[in-house]
Design a protein that fits this description.
The two termini are 13 Å apart. Strands 2-1-3 form a 3-stranded antiparallel sheet, with no helix packed on it. A two-stranded antiparallel ribbon has the order 4-5. It is globular and about 45 Å long. The chain has strands spanning 3-16, 21-27, 44-50, 58-67, 70-80. With 87 residues, it is mostly beta strands. It is 0% helix and 56% strand. The mean pLDDT is 91. A hairpin with a 2-residue loop joins β4 (58-67) and β5 (70-80).
Length: 87
C-alpha cells in the first residue's frame, strides 16, 4: 500500500540528486482570489510517498486537482520507487 507522508503546493521545488535533498520555497498556504476564474502563474506540487517492502517498485496513479465537486485537472502518473521505499 502506498502512503502519502507529505503533500504540499509551492512556487518551486528543487531536487539535488547528488546530495539527495529537496528544497521547497514559497509554500502556498491559502489562495485568496478576488473572483473566478483566477490564474496561478507558477505552482509545484511535492509529494513524499512511501511503499511497504512487499509492494511492487512501480505504481500507476491518477493525480486529481478539484475544487468542491468540480474536477479541474486529472493527470496519470507513473511512480517509480526502484529499490527505495520512498519516492
Amino acid at each position: 500500500m502506498i502512503i502519502c507522508r507529505l503533500l504540499l503546493c509551492a512556487q518551486g521545488v528543487v531536487r539535488d540528486a547528488e546530495r539527495s535533498t529537496i528544497s521547497i520555497f514559497n509554500i502556498i498556504e491559502t489562495l485568496q482570489a478576488a473572483g473566478f476564474p483566477f490564474f496561478i502563474q507558477q505552482m509545484a506540487v511535492f509529494a513524499l510517498l512511501e511503499r511497504e517492502p512487499g509492494d511492487p517498485p512501480q505504481h500507476e496513479i491518477q493525480f486529481r486537482l478539484s475544487m468542491g465537486e468540480a474536477e479541474l485537472v486529472t493527470v496519470p502518473l507513473t511512480i517509480e520507487f526502484r529499490e527505495s521505499l520512498r519516492n
